[in-house]
Amino acid sequence: DAKTTQPNSMESNEEEPVHLPCNHSTISGTDYIHWYRQLPSQGPEYVIHGLTSNVNNRMASLAIAEDRKSSTLILHRATLRDAAVYYCIPIWVDDKIIFGKGTRLHILP
Amino acid sequence: DTGVSQDPRHKITKRGQNVTFRCDPISEHNRLYWYRQTLGQGPEFLTYFQNEAQLEKSRLLSDRFSAERPKGSFSTLEIQRTEQGDSAMYLCASSLGGKWEKLFFGSGTQLSVL
After folding, report:
1. Which residues on A lie below 8 Å from B103 (Cβ)?
2. Nearest CA-CA partner of A64 in A4, A10, A24
3. pLDDT tens across B45-76, in order?
4. Under the phi-then-psi rule, with left for phi > 0, alpha for psi from -120 to 50, and beta for the rest, what region is A52?
5. What distance in Å separates the CA atoms of residue A71 and residue A4, rounded to the nearest whole number?
6. Beta strand extents in chain A (DSSP E only)
7. pLDDT tens column, B12-33
8. Do A45 and B33 touch (CB under 8 A)?
9. Beta strand pairing status for B10-13 and B109-113?
10. What whole-number distance in Å separates Cα of residue A60 and Cα of residue A54?
């Protein structure tokens, strides 16, 4: 069973880049790495996913280590609206997401 | 795109009462999931449907919990004889189905059992 490790919380200043790390040391070779985030009083929302290559979209970038044992979600210019809990999800059990506790990101004005 | 909607947003009930929550998924989505979330924890899987078929129910889920998805559209989650430990946010999500498909979540129903 793969173990996922994320810091409990992180802080960043507004308008600065944020790097959110995730370790998934026993991920299988075919599992995509997904990231979701949960804003206060909202359900989780999809952020990004990738398999081996680094990925970019309008919300964030995902950097995946060559050995796939870790990944980093990058917010290029954090705003106050990015304050949320970020979940790294390298494992789908059958067809369902299993969430961990995630990283609570605080943005300082 | 109307998104996933859940009703009610908040529910306060007395211990021992039954409650029912409704989820309306995105219209073309075949999969529908229910999760439960308590403070400081990530969402916990409860059950999911492919169209009207309930494919899996968490083994941790009490028999007091039941979910339906008649006709493969909206879904209801019922909790019978509520207990204080049932107090949580109940989240619904839908997707096109299959592994790796994005899940779209509603804003949840916050249940408080007094």
Report:
1. 36, 44, 46, 97
2. A24
3. 999 999 999 999 998 888 999 999 998 899 99
4. alpha
5. 11
6. 4-5, 9-13, 18-24, 33-38, 45-50, 55-56, 61-64, 70-75, 84-89, 92-93, 96-97, 103-108
7. 999 999 999 999 999 999 999 9
8. no
9. parallel
10. 11
